[in-house]
TrEMBL record:
Subunit structure, as described in the record: Component of the lipopolysaccharide transport and assembly complex.
Family: Belongs to the LptD family.
Organism: Bradyrhizobium huanghuaihaiense
Gene behind the chain: lptD
Domain LptD C-terminal per the UniProt entry, residue ranges: 328-747
Keywords: Cell outer membrane, Membrane, Signal, Transmembrane, Transmembrane helix
Protein name according to UniProt: LPS-assembly protein LptD
InterPro entries registered for this protein in UniProt: LipoPS_assembly_LptD (IPR020889), LptD (IPR050218), LptD_C (IPR007543)
Entry's localization field: Cell outer membrane
Annotated GO CC locations: cell outer membrane; transporter complex
Transmembrane helix keyword on record: yes
Length: 817
């Protein structure tokens, strides 16, 4: 059975190596040298010897001198010409050099009558690429068709090794290695005779030079000298082959839905620019899952297509689930092509028979690195895109369709398209920097997406009822995460800013901006939607001019231990109120956390659908210390004030963006952060938001990291106050820890755990161990996790095990269950 074809990326293939073709070295060096000495033709031979003896016949005339780059040098203690027996020998510390190839041996002889070359004693051959062949004896015919090598060992430049007690060559094509051993592991430095981490032994290894194939008979795979797998027969392309059709390494997996599964992929190299891999999975419960992947490389890029299909034998394994059907399958495709050095276009596409297909059979890139679906995304994206990047500009246009993995396809939007462009001018405008950006989006959704944020709403399904707070225009039980209908928005924004320093060292930065939005909204009148948004067709034009000034006054104090810079910062922003606040869909500005990272942002919303309005002042003080012996510390503390007009963060929209954020008050909560790195080993950071009146902690995160030679650890503590307007009814508190320990030279143990302090339970942990070196990768991981949602839905437990074994030059075997 053939089990190891070569399957490389079509974009680039590394040159192969050939540790078994020892005759190539003999062809290039040993035989050529001997024939030149004996027959007097070929490149020039320079011989130097301490003792040169002659027989009764005079020596032949010297051959004509060839070009310097073809000259051959022979060095030996003694060179003997035996004209009676037509034999020439180089004896004692023989060294032969020709075109970057060198040969060392105790003795080299060529018999002109039998036309055979014989070398013996500590033979070492090194070619120009660094491949080294060791042997005790070599006996070959001068046409290179027949012969043998005794006690062969080959070390290649890419650190693969091969050895055999004897190697016989016949018919100019076949080489048979007796008791052959192959490994890609380097020998132990302390004990070179110690067995390598892994090696493949064969009673006979046959190399077919014409087919470029290696055939192993009675083979066994050993780890640390212990046989673990036996194979009566298998074959693989020799290392000179870049791509060759054949079987790849098998894989094993298991799952409740399909039982046990085994995969034996077959790789077909159709042409230099295309290939296909057939990867059927034979399962114990559902039959055969057919898989195939086609790839092609073209002038400007590459694309691939993956197809899956199965005629399920036991539909009952998925009873009551989307997988309860006879036939299931999917098609994936992706590609990317370069138009020039600045522009690329491409696509991603996914079509599935049902949204649980990938997770039920643990397929595709949608599984996590451990091979499970513990962190399975909620959807798969199909998109067509065009992207361009300049020195200070960027363009991206794409249309997107998400395939839901949760079954709510009618609640997933279709985007056609979203376009972004930004540019910063390379020349000053009124002495300052001028930039502009645009964004346009057009999307649609069939059904409304409600998110219950209280236990009452979750149990009584109040989201679609007409009950609402007429003043707030929002039901108190639910949020509208996604509206039904179509939405089109075109946004354009221009910004200008200039910084200058006065004689006192104060830094003044005036800035100005103008934002314009053209909006067309068509909201379907589905049950409950009118509580959040005006239904029907609505058009609007929104304009937001902005002017402001930022002030910094750094004070520097220098001490023998380092320097400290204290910098008061004040920012004043003047602009009108946000128009149509909360009256249009909010699709791209739903996530919002107020902290020091966005304290001095002119617009703190995360997307274009909302725009900050009203007069605001952001103030704070920043202190930075640089220590002379290394290390740094940075502290930032500040607050934001609503000076006049409407506070955009206090206005309810369909998902209550800004409420319970700390900015929904005239005087915001205090925000602070501390970052400290005493050296390269330790880093510490603290982020906090405190109530403006009571100083109660509303949000607190503390994180510490340490990295040493043999181990590393990180600990993060989080404490978050209840945010009932967003669906978090109680305080959340927990600790997340991760760590790794290098228990030996190549052994690493890793782990992580998440401790829910409110529930007083560990709701996620990962334990793993791995061995990594230049020839072997071994990993074993176990992960247990509970997935939580808001609104009191019970958590879902997920578990997975993953074992992976990677042998350099052979491939990787993965076992998941």
């Amino acid at each position: 059975m053939a089990v190891a074809a070569h399957r490389h990326k079509l974009t680039a293939v590394a040159p192969g190596h050939d540790p078994w073709l020892f005759t190539s070295l003999v062809c290039d060096c040993l035989l050529a040298i001997a024939v030149v000495i004996a027959t007097g033709f070929g490149p020039v031979v320079k011989a130097s010897a301490q003792n040169v003896s002659y027989n009764t016949q005079p020596p032949r005339p010297k051959p004509p001198k060839a070009a310097n780059d073809n000259q051959m040098l022979v060095q030996a203690t003694e060179v003997v010409y035996d004209y009676n027996n037509s034999r020439i020998s180089a004896v004692g510390n023989v060294q032969l050099f020709y075109n970057g190839t060198s040969v060392e041996a105790n003795k080299v002889a060529y018999d002109q009558k039998t036309k055979r070359l014989h070398a013996e004693g500590n033979i070492r051959m090194t070619d120009a690429e660094g491949k080294i062949t060791y042997a005790e004896t070599i006996d070959l015919s001068d046409d290179y068709r027949d012969g043998f090598v005794g006690s062969l060992r080959v070390d290649t430049a890419d650190r693969t090794r091969m050895a055999a007690t004897r190697a016989d060559r016949s018919s100019g094509n076949y080489t048979v290695f007796e008791n052959g051993v192959y490994t890609a592991c380097a020998p132990c430095k302390d004990d070179p005779k110690k067995p390598p981490l892994w090696q493949v032994k064969g009673a006979r290894i046959i190399h077919d030079q014409q087919e470029k194939m290696l055939y192993f008979e009675t083979a066994q795979l050993e780890f640390f000298g212990v046989p673990l797998a036996y194979m009566p027969y298998f074959s693989t392309p020799d290392p000179t082959v870049k791509r060759k059709s054949g079987f790849l390494m098998p894989g094993f997996t298991s799952n409740t839905g399909y039982g046990y599964g085994v995969e034996v992929p077959f790789y077909w190299a159709i042409a230099p620019d295309m290939d296909v891999t057939f990867n059927p999975r034979i399962t114990s419960r559902q039959g055969v899952l057919f898989q195939a992947e086609f790839r092609q490389r073209l002038m400007g890029g590459a694309y691939q297509i993956r197809a899956y299909g199965i005629d399920q034998l036991d539909r009952g394994a998925f009873a009551g689930q989307p997988g309860d059907r006879q036939w299931r399958g999917a098609v994936e495709t992706k590609g990317q092509f370069a138009l020039n050095d600045k522009w690329v276009w491409g696509w991603d596409g996914v079509v599935m028979s049902d949204y649980y297909f990938f997770s039920d059979y643990r397929l595709s890139q949608y599984r996590d690195p451990l091979g499970s679906f513990l962190n399975l995304p909620t959807d798969a994206v199909s998109q067509l895109y065009l992207t361009g990047a300049g020195n200070r500009s960027f363009f991206d246009a794409r249309t997107m369709y998400w395939r839901s993995f949760s079954g709510n396809q009618d609640k997933v939007p279709i985007v056609y398209p979203v376009i972004d462009y930004s540019n910063v001018l390379n020349y000053p405008v009124f002495g300052g920097e001028f930039s502009y950006k645009t964004n346009s989006v057009n999307l649609s959704r069939d059904s409304a997406v409600f998110d219950p944020i209280t236990t009452l709403a979750n149990t009584n399904s109040l989201c679609t009822t007409a009950s609402a707070d007429p003043l707030a225009r929002t039901p108190s039980q639910c949020l509208l995460r996604g509206f039904p209908g179509t939405y089109t928005r075109l946004s354009a924004e221009a910004q200008w800013r200039k910084s200058f320093t006065d004689p006192l060292g104060q830094i003044w930065t005036p800035f100005a901006g103008l934002r314009a939005d053209a909006i067309n909204s068509s909201v379907s009148n589905q049950p409950g939607v009118s509580n959040y948004l005006p239904v029907g067709d609505t058009q609007a034009f929104r304009l937001m001019p902005t002017v402001g000034l930022e002030y910094r006054y750094p004070f520097i104090n220098v001490q023998p231990w380092g320097s400290t810079t204290v910098e008061p910062i004040a920012q004043i922003i003047i602009r009108p109120n946000e128009t149509y606040a909360g009256k249009f869909p909010n699709e791209d500005a739903q996530s919002f956390v107020f902290e020091t990272s966005n304290l001095f942002s002119v617009d703190k919303f995360s997307g274009y659908d909302r725009v900050e309005g009203g007069g605001r002042a952001n103030v704070g003080v920043q202190a930075t210390t640089q220590f002379d012996k290394g290390g740094a510390a940075k502290v930032l503390f500040g607050q934001s004030y609503q000076l006049f007009g409407m506070n955009s963060y206090a206005v309810r929209d369909s998902i209550n963006t800004g409420l319970d954020s700390g900015l929904d008050k005239p005087r915001s909560d205090y925000v602070a952060s501390i970052d400290y790195s005493p050296n390269r080993t330790y880093t510490f950071s603290v982020r906090s938001r405190m109530d403006e009146q009571t100083w109660n902690v509303q949000r607190f995160e503390a994180e510490g990291r340490a990295n040493f030679d043999r181990w590393s650890i990180s600990v993060m503590y989080g404490n978050y106050a209840a945010q009932p307007e967003l669906g978090y009814l109680t305080r959340r508190e927990g600790i997340l820890t991760t760590g790794s320990l290098k228990v030996a030279t190549n052994w690493v143990v890793t782990g992580s755990a998440r401790w829910d302090l409110e529930a007083n339970e560990i709701n996620q942990y990962v334990v793993g161990a791995g061995y990594v070196d230049d020839c072997l990768v071994l990993g074993l991981n176990y992960l247990k996790s509970y997935n939580y949602t808001v609104g009191g839905v019970p958590p879902v437990l997920n578990e997975t095990y993953m074992l992976s074994i990677g042998l350099r030059t052979f491939g990787t075997i993965a076992i998941g269950f």
